[in-house]
Amino acid sequence: MAQLIDGKQLSDQVLQEVASEVELLKGKYDIVPTLAVVLVGEDPASQVYVRNKVKRATEAGMGSIEHRLDAETSQNTLNALIDHLNNDPEVHGILVQLPLPSHLNEDEVIASIHPAKDVDGFHPLNVGALASGRPSLVPCTPQGCMIMLRQVHPDLSGKNVVVVGRSNIVGKPMAALLLQANCTVTIAHSRTRNIESLCRNADIVVAAVGRAEFINADWIKPGATVIDVGINAIDVNGKRKLVGDVDFESVARVAGAITPVPGGVGPMTIGCLLLNTTRAARRQLA
Ligand SMILES: NC(=O)C1=CN([C@@H]2O[C@H](COP(=O)(O)OP(=O)(O)OC[C@H]3O[C@@H](n4cnc5c(N)ncnc54)[C@H](OP(=O)(O)O)[C@@H]3O)[C@@H](O)[C@H]2O)C=CC1
Ligand SMILES: Nc1nc(=O)c2c([nH]1)NC[C@@H]1CN(c3ccc(C(=O)N[C@@H](CCC(=O)O)C(=O)O)cc3)C=[N+]21
C-alpha cells in the first residue's frame, strides 16, 4: 500500500506558519493581512471553497472580506469593484473565484487585479515571472503540490514527471515549478497520444484533468508518486461524494506515495493562498 501524503496535516503546518507571520505583521507594523474574495453567481461548489477560505483566514487571525455578486453582474460593475479593492490599503490580496459566468471576460478581470495583490498568481506579470524562473506570487494549487512532493522527494532533480492537464491555473504553472526544480517535465492533454504509456514511464504523475477517477493502476509505474489535483463530485447511491482524477483504490496498491481526495491538494491550496496573502501584505509595507 502506498504512503499517504496527508494534505490536511501539511496544510495545518502551513497555516501555523501563516498565523505566526500574521502575529508579526500585527505586532510590528500594525497591519492585519486581509484577503478579499469575489464570488460572482451561485455556483454551489465555489461557495464551499469560498467558505473554507474565509474560515481558515479567520482562524489564522487574518482579515477576510467576501463580495458576493449576482450572476448577472456586468463587466463594468466587476471592474469597478476590483478597482476599489486595488486602491484599498487595507486589502492585501484579491481573489476572484473562477470560472466566471460566460458573459464576463475572465482575461480582462485577471489583468485588472493589481499584480502585487494577485494572490492567485494569475496576472500576466506574475505568470511571466514564473515562466522566466523569477517567481513572485506563485499559483496556490501548484505551490501546494510542490510542498507535498518534497515530503517524498526532498531532491526532485532529474525525476521524470508527467503533468496531465494544461490549464492556466494548474497544469502550466505546475510544469513551470517542476522544471525549475530540475525535473524532466511532460505535459499531457486531451490531444496527447499514448498517454497511458507516457504516464507509466513517469516517476511522478500529477493529475489535473477534471474527470472523476480517470487514471487507474495500469497507468502507474510501481512505486511512483501520484499527486491528485482533481475535485469531482459524483453520485454514489444517491449520496454526493468527492473523488479525484485518480482511481484511488487501484492506484494506491501500485504507487509508492499518493495524495487522497478529499484531504489532499485542496487543503494545501487554501494554506498557500493565505501564505501568499501574508507575502503580499509584507511586500506592500514599503
Ligand atoms: N485541489 C484544488 O485545489 C484544485 C482542484 N482543481 C480541480 O482540478 C481539476 C482540473 O482543474 P483545471 O485545470 O482547472 O481544469 P480544466 O478543465 O481547465 O483543464 C483540464 C485539462 O485536462 C485535459 N484533459 C481533459 N480531458 C482529457 C483526457 N481525456 N485526456 C487527457 N487530458 C484531458 C484538458 O485538455 P485540453 O487542454 O486539451 O482540453 C485540460 O488541459 C478539476 O477537477 C478541478 O476541480 C482545480 C483547481 C484547484
Ligand atoms: N481564482 C480561483 N482560485 C482558485 O484557487 C480556485 C478557483 N478560482 N476556482 C475553483 C478552484 C478549486 N479550488 C479548490 C480549493 C480548495 C478545495 C478544498 O479545500 N477541498 C477540500 C474539501 C472540499 C469539500 O469538502 O467540498 C478537500 O479537497 O479536502 C477544493 C478546491 C480552488 N480553485
UniProtKB/TrEMBL annotation:
The keyword Lipoprotein does not apply. Residues 139-284 form the Tetrahydrofolate dehydrogenase/cyclohydrolase NAD(P)-binding domain. Keywords: Amino-acid biosynthesis, Histidine biosynthesis, Hydrolase, Methionine biosynthesis, Multifunctional enzyme, NADP, One-carbon metabolism, Oxidoreductase, Purine biosynthesis. The gene is folD. NADP(+) binds at G165, R166, S167, I231. The lineage of its organism: Bacteria, Pseudomonadati, Pseudomonadota, Gammaproteobacteria, Oceanospirillales. HAMAP family: THF_DHG_CYH. This is Bifunctional protein FolD. Its EC number is 1.5.1.5, 3.5.4.9.
